Amino acid sequence: MTLKLYAGRDIRSLGHLYMNHLMAMVVENLHSTSAIAAELAWRDQEINWLKGQLLQSQTRSTVPGWQPMSTAPKDRPIVGLCRHDADIYVLDSGLLTTYGAHAEGLDYADDGPHVIVWGGENEYFDGGHIPAWWFLQYSNWETVANPIAWLSIPDYEALLNEPVPEAE
Asked: In the chain, what are the domain boundaries?
């Protein structure tokens, strides 16, 4: 059985919200299924971005140690809490976000914690340019990440250089 995406709604309970949308659709001539689907998709995109912002805010305030991405160091690996749909992907201007531009042609990280690094800036022969962004460490700049918060990694290089204890 196929799960229905749209259920019958009690339009009276939706009050002015329903009427606002109905009137806007009439005034803007949104009569085709495609035009209505495009509007719904745009709203979904906005809702996903807002959910991401809310999650980012809640993560910083409820999980000790997580920091906002605006404070993340870009000169060393960090642990990033990634969430693909936290990025709006397309700006109001119709251009892709930096994350969206990288994710469009590459793979993207699954939701959850990952070791990430800053980089992957691209200059193209036709003059195109994609600025640096966050990527999974050791992915050769092929798996873009969308971190919403970060944790510091202890001096892992020093740990890697320590002798390994012998098994008893």
From this structure: 8-168
SS3 string of the chain?
A: CCCCCCCCCCHHHHHHHHHHHHHHHHHCCCCCHHHHHHHHHHHHHHHHHHHHHHHHHHHHHHCCCCECHHHCCCCCCEEEEECHHHCCCECCCCCECHHHHHHHHCEECCCEEEEEEEECCEECCCCCEECCEEEECCCCCCEECCEEEEECCCCHHHHHHCCCCCCC
Instruction: Write down the pLDDT at residue 158.
Output: 73
**How do residues 34-90 score in pLDDT, each as one tens digit?**
777 777 777 777 777 777 667 666 655 556 688 889 899 999 999 999 998 888 788
